[in-house]
């Protein structure tokens, strides 16, 4: 089963992304984390049976997106994790930096739109979790 | 022979006395005198030097015809006036003083002074004057004068140009260097003292001394560059480096040098100007610091600014794509609050940018 985690310190962002994911039928129950450390905790005790899609913000207090990516590599479920980097900045350097992390499969500038959700479902690694209606 | 013949009466008869005399020696002597006079004329009268004979009061007893050529005044006219009459008022005292020295010395040289021409212009002349009062045939002071106006003009030009060069060097605060490659001798103008603080006793006039004052981090680069320039024979050097001052601090230098080569193309002299660009360099540093701080601000602001904007865009996208979504009014309220946040951020940027301009580090 695909579990979707939204990691962002901005409440409105998590609200909007959550509603979008529900309406696009990406997930019924998006898991929202205001702190990256909370998401680390959750994943450390997460089951290896599931696949985890993370919408990860870069600029967050305490632990930012990059630090979070380092943490993932220590996790037992790291191979079950796919990350969408989501940032409000339009910084080319961030995009280049993101390529160095193996779990990152996409880099999106905010906001995430309905179109992003449609494309997301077509990605090879995620496609199995979205069976074609026909 | 010289023959003299006179009619006489001899014993009541007409007769003639004829005397034949050998005058070969006399003719030879006259011939020699003529020759010598000719030579004298050639030397004195037709020479370009002006020769005058006068007494201690400047009364002229002889003026050579070359006066016409030198001053435009003929010898016959010139002799009418006192010698001092022709001399520039600022020079006449010095000439008189020199003249008085002839009472104890046989020969005196009078350095350059001005005499007036027929057109009331001034020529510079230089005179060697000899006391020949003892010589009965002369009985006066013999003045031999040479026109040195052109020489003085050239000299003045040279002094002028040297002065100008010195002033330019001062005005630009450049230190001028002149390196004699073959003899390994380095010469500096006063800039080495005024700009870098080295006294004459500090300076060793060798290339090595100069090299030792380069900043260690710049040494290799300067060495490689000058090697390359000599190889390319391009003539010009322009390079920046740091140069050590007497107090141990370093100044930023823009060095512009010119290579002088011999016929084989090898460098024999390097003449250069070391310009102190420390102030400019510091200024650039300040501007660069400023720039990077502004860049920081711009970066941060683009993140901060884009956050509420991205939120608004996300909210709008959601409402547009799903018109029947629940809590529409709540979403609209979020749009409103995000817009307000965006507004206040933009106001903030303006005031922060002003802070930077007003409070440089």
Could you give a quick summary of the protein structure above?
Chain A is built from five helices and five strands. Chain A starts with a strand and ends in a 12-residue tail after the last helix. With 134 residues, chain A is α/β, with parallel strands linked by helices.
Description:
The complex is a heterodimer of chains A (134) and B (361). Chain A is an alpha/beta fold. In chain A, 34% of the residues lie in helices and 22% in strands. Chain A has 5 helices and 5 strands, in the order E-H-E-H-E-H-E-H-E-H. Chain A has helices at 11-23, 36-44, 65-72, 92-98, 114-122, and strands spanning 2-7, 31-33, 51-57, 81-87, 104-109. A 5-stranded parallel beta sheet of chain A has the order 2-1-3-4-5. Chain A is globular, with a radius of gyration of 14 Å. The mean pLDDT of chain A is 88. Chain B has 361 residues and is of the alpha+beta class. Chain B has 3 domains: 47-153, PAS domain (Beta-Lactamase), CATH 3.30.450.20; 173-276, Beta-Lactamase (2-Layer Sandwich); 282-358, Helix Hairpins (Orthogonal Bundle), CATH 1.10.287. Chain B has helices at residues 24-45, 66-71, 75-78, 92-100, 149-171, 191-194, 207-212, 216-232, 278-321, 328-358; strands at residues 2-10, 13-21, 50-54, 60-63, 107-116, 122-132, 140-147, 175-180, 185-188, 236-244, 250-261, 267-276. In chain B, the strands form 3 sheets. A 5-stranded antiparallel beta sheet of chain B has the order 4-3-7-6-5, sandwiched between helices. A 5-stranded antiparallel beta sheet of chain B has the order 9-8-12-11-10, sandwiched between helices. A two-stranded antiparallel sheet of chain B has the order 1-2. In chain B, a hairpin with a 5-residue loop joins strand 5 and strand 6 (122-132). In chain B, helix 9 (278-321) packs antiparallel against helix 10 (328-358). The longest helix of chain B has 44 residues, at 278-321. Chain B is rod-shaped and about 185 Å long. The N and C termini of chain B lie far apart (116 Å). The mean pLDDT of chain B is 86.
């Amino acid at each position: 089963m695909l579990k979707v985690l939204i990691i962002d310190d901005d409440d409105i962002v998590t609200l909007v992304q959550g509603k979008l994911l529900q309406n696009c039928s990406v997930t019924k129950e998006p898991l929202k984390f205001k702190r990256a450390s909370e998401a680390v905790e959750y994943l450390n005790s997460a089951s290896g049976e599931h696949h985890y899609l993370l919408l990860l913000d870069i600029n967050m207090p305490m632990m930012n997106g990059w630090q979070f990516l380092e943490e993932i590599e220590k996790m037992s479920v790291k191979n079950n994790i796919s990350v969408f980097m989501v940032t409000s900045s339009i910084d080319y350097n961030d995009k280049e930096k993101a390529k160095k992390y193996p779990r990152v499969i996409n880099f999106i500038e905010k906001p995430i739109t309905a179109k992003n959700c449609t494309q997301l479902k077509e990605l090879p690694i995620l496609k199995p979790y979205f069976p074609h209606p026909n | 022979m010289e023959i003299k013949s006179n009619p006489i009466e001899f014993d009541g008869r007409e007769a003639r006395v004829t005397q034949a005399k050998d005058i070969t020696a006399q003719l030879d002597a006259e011939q020699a005198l003529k020759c010598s006079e000719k030579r004298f004329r050639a030397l004195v009268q037709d020479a370009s030097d002006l020769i005058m004979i006068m007494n201690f009061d400047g009364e002229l007893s002889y003026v050579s015809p070359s006066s016409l050529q030198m001053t435009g005044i003929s010898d016959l006219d010139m002799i009418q006036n006192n010698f001092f009459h022709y001399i520039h008022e600022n020079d006449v005292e010095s000439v008189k003083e020199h003249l008085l020295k002839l009472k104890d010395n046989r020969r005196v040289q009078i350095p350059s002074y001005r005499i007036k021409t027929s057109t009331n212009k001034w020529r510079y002349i230089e005179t060697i004057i000899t006391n020949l009062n003892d010589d009965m045939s002369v009985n006066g002071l013999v003045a031999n004068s040479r026109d040195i106006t052109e020489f003085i003009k050239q000299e003045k030009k040279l002094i002028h140009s040297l002065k100008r060069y010195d002033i330019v060097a001062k005005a630009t605060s450049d230190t001028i260097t002149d390196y004699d490659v073959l003899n390994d001798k380095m010469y500096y103008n006063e800039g080495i003292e005024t700009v870098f603080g080295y006294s004459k006793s500090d300076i060793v006039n060798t290339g090595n001394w100069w090299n030792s004052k380069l900043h260690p981090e710049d040494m290799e680069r300067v060495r490689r560059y000058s090697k390359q320039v000599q190889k390319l024979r391009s003539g010009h050097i322009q390079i920046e480096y740091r140069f050590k001052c007497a107090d141990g601090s370093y100044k930023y230098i823009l060095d512009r040098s010119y290579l002088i080569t011999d016929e084989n193309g090898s460098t024999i002299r390097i003449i250069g100007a070391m310009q102190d660009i420390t102030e400019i360099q510091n200024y650039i540093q300040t501007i660069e610091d400023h720039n990077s701080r502004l860049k920081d601000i711009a970066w941060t602001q683009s993140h901060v600014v884009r956050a509420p904007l991205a939120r608004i865009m996300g909210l709008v996208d959601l409402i547009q794509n799903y018109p029947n979504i629940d809590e529409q009014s709540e979403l609209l309220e979020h749009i409103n609050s995000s817009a307000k946040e965006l507004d206040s951020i933009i106001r903030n940027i303006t005031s922060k940018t002003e802070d930077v301009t007003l409070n440089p580090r």
